[in-house]
Amino acid sequence: xxxxxxxxxxxxxxxxxxxxxxxxxxxxxxxxxxxxxxxxxxxxxxxxxxxxxxxxxxxxxxxxxxxxxxxxxxxxxxxxxxxxxxxxxxxxxxxxxxxxxxxxxxxxxxxxxxxxxxxxxxxxxxxxxxxxxxxxxxxxxxxxxxxxxxxxxxxxxxxxxxxxxxxxxxxxxxxxxxxxxxxxxxxxxxxxxxxxxxxxxxxxxxxxxxxxxxxxxxxxxxxxxxxxxxxxxxxxxxxxxxxxxxxxxxxxxxxxxxxxxxxxxxxxxxxxxxxxxxxxxxxxxxxxxxxxxxxxxxxxxxxxxxxxxxxxxxxxxxxxxxxxxxxxxxxxxxxxxxxxxxxxxxxxxxxxxxxxxxxxxxxxxxxxxxxxxxxxxxxxxxxxxxxxxxxxxxxxxxxxxxxxxxxxxxxxxxxxxxxxxxxxxxxxxxxxxxxxxxxxxxxxxx
Amino acid sequence: xxxxxxxxxxxxxxxxxxxxxxxxxxxxxxxxxxxxxxxxxxxxxxxxxxxxxxxxxxxxxxxxxxxxxxxxxxxxxxxxxxxxxxxxxxxxxxxxxxxxxxxxxxxxxxxxxxxxxxxxxxxxxxxxxxxxxxxxxxxxxxxxxxxxxxxxxxxxxxxxxxxxxxxxxxxxxxxxxxxxxxxxxxxxxxxxxxxxxxxxxxxxxxxxxxxxxxxxxxxxxxxxxxxxxxxxxxxxxxxxxxxxxxxxxxxxxxxxxxxxxxxxxxxxxxxxxxxxxxxxxxxxxxxxxxxxxxxxxxxxxxxxxxxxxxxxxxxxxxxxxxxxxxxxxxxxxxxxxxxxxxxxxxxxxxxxxxxxxxxxxxxxxxxxxxxxxxxxxxxxxxxxxxxxxxxxxxxxxxxxxxxxxxxxxxxxxxxxxxxxxxxxxxxxxxxxxxxxxxxxxxxxxxxxxxxxxxxxxxxxxxxxxxxxxxxxxxxxxxxxxxxxxxxxxxxxxxxxxxxxxxxxxxxxxxxxxxxxxxxxxxxxxxxxxxxxxxxxxxxxxxxxxxxxxxxxxxxxxxxxxxxxxxxxxxxxxxxxxxxxxxxxxxxxxxxxxxxxxxxxxxxxxxxxxxxxxxxxxxxxxxxxxxxxxxxxxxxxxxxxxxxxxxxxxxxxxxxxxxxxxxxxxxxxxxxxxxxxxxxxxxxxxxxxxxxxxxxxxxxxxxxxxxxxxxxxxxxxxxxxxxxxxxx
Lengths: 446, 727
Prior knowledge:
The structure holds 2 protein chains of 2 kinds.
Chain A: E1 4-9, E2 14-19, H1 32-44, E3 58-61, E4 64-71, E5 74-80, H2 86-104, H3 109-114, H4 116-126, E6 127-128, E7 131-132, H5 137-143, H6 148-154, E8 183-196, E9 202-216, E10 222-227, H7 230-233, H8 237-241, E11 251-255, H9 261-267, E12 270-272, E13 277-287, E14 297-306, E15 310-319, E16 326-335, E17 341-347, E18 351-355, E19 360-369, E20 373-381, E21 397-404, E22 413-419, E23 428-443
Parallel strand pairs in A: 8-23
Antiparallel strand pairs in A: 1-2, 1-5, 3-4, 4-5, 6-7, 8-9, 9-13, 10-12, 10-22, 11-13, 14-15, 15-20, 16-19, 16-21, 17-20, 18-19, 21-23
Chain B: H1 3-26, H2 31-46, H3 55-59, H4 67-80, H5 85-98, H6 104-116, H7 120-124, H8 127-134, H9 139-155, H10 157-162, H11 165-171, H12 178-197, H13 213-222, H14 228-240, H15 246-256, H16 265-279, H17 284-300, H18 307-323, H19 343-356, H20 362-373, H21 378-394, H22 399-412, H23 416-432, H24 437-450, H25 460-470, H26 478-487, H27 494-509, H28 518-531, H29 535-549, H30 554-560, H31 576-584, H32 589-593, H33 608-611, H34 614-639, H35 646-668, H36 674-698, H37 705-726
Helix pairs in contact in B: 1-2, 2-4, 4-6, 6-9, 8-9, 9-12, 12-14, 13-14, 14-16, 15-16, 16-17, 18-19, 19-21, 20-21, 20-22, 21-22, 21-23, 22-23, 23-24, 23-25, 25-27, 27-28, 27-29, 28-29, 34-35, 34-36, 35-36, 35-37, 36-37
Pfam family, one (chain A): Adap_comp_sub
Main location (chain A): membrane
GO cellular component, one term (chain A): clathrin adaptor complex
């Protein structure tokens, strides 16, 4: 998969490297900063300096392929000579980032320098001879840790052994877990991404749903999850007959590796042995081809620019959700010109803040009952002298919110059966629903 | 103490003492001091300092029960073993002992590290520990040992075979543990790759990895029990297996389909690839139903949070779309550009969107493109406008809407970039629909009005020159325009000059033009024939001059006013041979480079050229030509106005024919010496371009393009054969 793996700073200087195969000269990575610069410079010749259209996450140079991802001002780069599966390299590198982030909380230059010993150990365990091995943090933490002393003291035989899970078919759960109170918390979280044009028309929308589980269960429990999904329950008379249970057809369902995929494909049943602690059981997507939704939070924003003197913003926001529901922590991020100053805000409700370093104002509404609408007026001064007459604000307005006890798609958990064949304990499943804004709930400005 | 001194002391002081201090620490009588010193040695190593001189002292610490310390010493050994090969033997004893340790973690660690010490002497001691660990009771040790066989093969293939490790590895393929199986497969794949690229005696044929259906059936069972990385290896195997009948193919496809739901996009993409490979064995009806199932997994590739993975997804979607154009026909909205996307993703999404555009959704897409054209990234703007043109050329019904949109864009924000791109796109549209009166009267006034914003540096400047020659009677102020352009003639590059020459000749020949431009023509011809350095250009001017002064009245018109055949599409496509190669290499590096692996991967990177035999050279040269023709093609899309469309015509419509001809040509030239291939290649290219130009200029009017291509390639063929005879 990869011959070498390197951690590099933003300029391409190597921070930590591991050579797995010795088939690529060590000097190859020294060329990386130059190549990176070249990537950026070739685009400069076409026009603007900020344009990085030639940037690609891979470089081919003198027979060596550099594949890299960018994370927190770091480059994590894999080198290979062969025509390898680039998708798996990129996913491996991102898993590496994920694991290290879980180990050190933040993966950045400093944490790499401070933890080089453990990074080497992890690199060795996650990849051997350039072949990916174990990338599950929970399992890795079983036998690789920063605190060896504690690990050895807590291990019965005083000898740290590789957990069976590394090679078992259930490679995500160790044996002998015990809880006094057996509980499973189920969160159904739907993130809404929406692209709305200036006239309030929805151009594109999608629901990215996730079912997250926090399991505090003893032994090796076998779980079975029932949802009101049409694709899963089309044979179920009960749901088919009742009128109020809305059947949903989910697209593009992805499961955690613990779910028995073939069982789902053949019998449409979600069964699994959960990992211990928190994990994402499944994710799904509902796209606008299925139903084009109205905006949940509709924003209408009028901006009036008086050149050389001020800019006026008149913004109204409406929550088009059920009267019973309430949206929490609504934030409307309105972009303003970089050089605007002296803000004056008149919100009908909530607070408005000016964030000059991000060139935006944020209108915060702590709670927002369904069906209500609010207005806000803002006025900012503009410098009298300017050299850039382009006041067209192309940056879209972004909205953040979360609505508890509500799923947009109408998905519901019908049951979660927990069965541990040996221990036969009582267990308590809990379910929560949340709808929230996704990364891209944006409204375009004119 | 002055600051300077302080700094100097800070810089010099520790440097001198550091090695000494470390050395002392390493031989300290206290355990914790030794461990601390080792850690600092590794730290220095990480920072790129050379600490190889401490090798003997570090080695003394190898015998320890502290797992962490052991790992650190092993790590040091792996890095610096090659600097002190003779001392490595001192470590052998510990390694061999460790492979008998009761703790599997230590057994695996020892065998893993032994394989990584790339010292020949070490290999002699590997036999016993390796064969022992290959039969270890713990699967974690077995899978590590399996990989170690590949490491050994890398160091010394002969020994690996003689000691029978290869055979024991092959036996391990029926291991009960899925993670061992997947690593055995990995190791066999590695060995296979090394064997192919090595100088081993190929007569001694090694069947390293034989994929038969019994094995495949086993792997299919394994697929659901493996870790995600193991699944990838198994999918690779399944992809390499050629199913013998539709029943087998069906079975394989059915077993892979559940994997489309895996969270790891690499598995999703590999599954798609493998399904597509086996799909051809199935019946038409089941093919379409399976293709339908692939659309939402494909889309899921671009909802991944990692932009780099999205990019790879998009690149692969682009290839799959070319093979199966209807697979995503309803999914246009998913590809809408997000404001927060990195630029390289935005451009790639645009590329996919124009491919998905059809009669039903082009209105939606045009609205989006309008938004993108108002963004601030110049590359995005120019690509958006080009995309509008591509839609107009792809869908005749959309054309008025597209042209109106471009006009609107010029009105809204008519800066140089937008005008430049718009003029280029409008010219392309006219080339697709030549002679449509309403279109011409709609487009040409806009171009004439905005011409003053363009300068010689803009690519579309030459488009305007070409249009002046093609539709002179539609420009009301043609004489002003021509005079204005001619003023800058001395600043033109040779392409622009050629373009201008063609235009001015055409304007003079066109009977619809009432004004007389013979003075400009005379000045141009004199200027070029007397002062021009470019031989081609000068020759062209001479030819025109003679043609114009011949007694024949109609012949020059027939030749010079010949209409170009309309362009088909401005969306780039792959050559079918290359497309097939790319389809078989989906999700690999070649999918993102957009070229088959043999063009950029060498089996032996160090001694690439020495070892290549004539066949390989031929293949490479052939590939170069393919690439060149392709490149020319790409260039032509942008530049063909500059050449007055003449040269591009041949190349863009006939590239396939040309390639076929070239292929024939190479089969004839098997005996040509290797060193000549490259010179021949460049000759061929020159001649190709030359013939294309000449051929078109001298072709009689209204000759179908098919015939033209035929004759041009025949000519090429002849000349090339002549060239070959020369060698």
